[in-house]
Amino acid sequence: MAERADALPPFLERSDTDFMGLSDSIERVIRRLETRRALSEEDRNAIRALPFTYRTLEASTYMVREGEPPQICTILLSGFAYRHKITEKGARQILSLHLPGEFLDLQNSMLEVADHNVQTLTRAEIAAVPVTALHRLVTEHPAVARAMWIDTLVDAAIFREWLVNVGRRDSHSRIAHLLCEFALRLEMAGLASHYRYELPTAARASSPASAAPSPSPIGRASATPATSTAATSIMRKAGPARPLSPAKPAAHRPTQILRRKYLGKRAA
């Protein structure tokens, strides 16, 4: 199987219905960016006009390899993907999971060499755009540049939350936090409703993400009463999204922080 980003499988022939679906996926990406910064119709048309190459990738395909110069920036249209690093001894640490509508490597596209790996977790459809075209887009459209910048800052905020999750929360709290995070992010992507969603990532990736020894801790722990109750309790306590109150300590308002972090202006 081809794994390098510049040797991904070629674009396959599709029907008109398939093309309509791909177009809808790009519109989802635009809507996501508009939660970060208001875009004009000219900005939106510039994004639509990018020279996308659409591909279908099997699970475990590498899109970015650590140490290689990035040549394309990838948008996930369907399926799941994840970032990870591998230690000298071969141990893998997952850094983040990615959902449809998200840019997978905006950070790497601004660097000369990728500092981590990006790999598909499930079968996925992607839209790849040359890094040079992306650079031209952000130079000519400052609002798009700001939206993408804010998007990377939100990613960084999620990374920080994962550090706390792995380092300081107990196992039930870690799993509950992940389930709440995915509920909010999938809601933003239009793929979840009332905290109900499908998450086909448990068996492959949840162990490094939650720092649990089991090969599929989400698959097991999400079914336990303690974890299910913890996740449900956090979401119910949050209620409708509302502004943060500086008078309350962070420990008493976890999901208000999550909503602001993952839903952007929609939670303001």
Feature tags:
2 domains, 268 residues, Jelly Rolls, globular, 4-stranded antiparallel beta sheet, single chain, alpha+beta, 7 strands, 10 helices, disordered N terminus, 3-stranded antiparallel beta sheet
Describe how the helices and strands are arranged.
Layout: H1 16-34, H2 41-48, E1 53-57, E2 62-64, E3 72-78, E4 81-86, E5 92-98, H3 106-109, E6 117-120, E7 124-130, H4 131-140, H5 142-168, H6 171-188, H7 202-210, H8 217-221, H9 225-238, H10 254-263
Antiparallel strand pairs: 1-7, 2-6, 3-7, 4-5, 4-6
Helix pairs in contact: 4-5, 6-9, 6-10
Quick description:
The chain is built from ten helices and seven strands. By secondary structure, the chain is of the alpha+beta class. A four-stranded antiparallel sheet has the order 2-6-4-5.
Shape: globular
For the terminal residues, how far apart are their CA atoms? 45 Å
Structural class: alpha+beta
Q: Largest sheet, if any?
A: 4 strands, antiparallel
- The neighbouring-strand order within the major sheet is 2-6-4-5
Task: Let me know the average pLDDT.
Answer: 75
Order of helices and strands: HHEEEEEHEEHHHHHHH
Tally of structural domains? 2
* Quaternary status: single chain
The helical percent reads 40-55%
Beta fraction: 5-15%
Cα-atom radius of gyration: 19 Å
Number of helices: 10
- Count of individual beta strands: 7
Name of the CATH first level of the largest domain = Mainly Beta
CATH superfamily name of the largest domain?
Jelly Rolls
Q: If you consult CATH, what is the topology of the largest domain? A: Jelly Rolls
Uncertain runs? 1-20, 210-230, 238-254
CATH architecture of the largest domain: Sandwich
